[in-house]
Amino acid sequence: MANKLPRFDRLINPLLRALEALGGSGAVDEIYEKVIELEKLPEDVLAQLHDQDKSNQTEVGYRLAWARTYLKKYGLLENSTRGVWSLTAKATFGDGDRGEGGVGGGEGAGQLGMAFRGAGGRRGVLLDGDVGAGVMSLPAPLPLNPI
Description:
Elements: H1 12-21, E1 25-27, H2 28-39, H3 43-46, H4 59-73, E2 77-81, E3 84-87, E4 116-117, E5 123-124
Antiparallel strand pairs: 1-3, 2-3, 4-5
């Protein structure tokens, strides 16, 4: 049985962790490779193309693009240079600092599931259906692309 493709919203946390592991920014290909490494995605999942008639982009790559788009709309990512994505000040926290608008404080707190540093210093965003302590849910003010 083939492994199931992760939905784009389930790639948000791995994307944030990948960018953190890359030092806060990275090219699309670097981010893709780091997410694969962190999530240990199997070859049969990675081999699936999004639209083989139009491009050679994988379905995972397509869904990571949606995850980046949502994180940009929520102010957690920026791409000031084509193909390079960076964590913003909202998503970059110092040791123990929750950042502006982050979980538990600042203007804008409660508007979206902010990046956080949880147990072990891991950064993430809690989405509906996930479980975790001290993390906010990410609302869906934008229509979700049914992937």
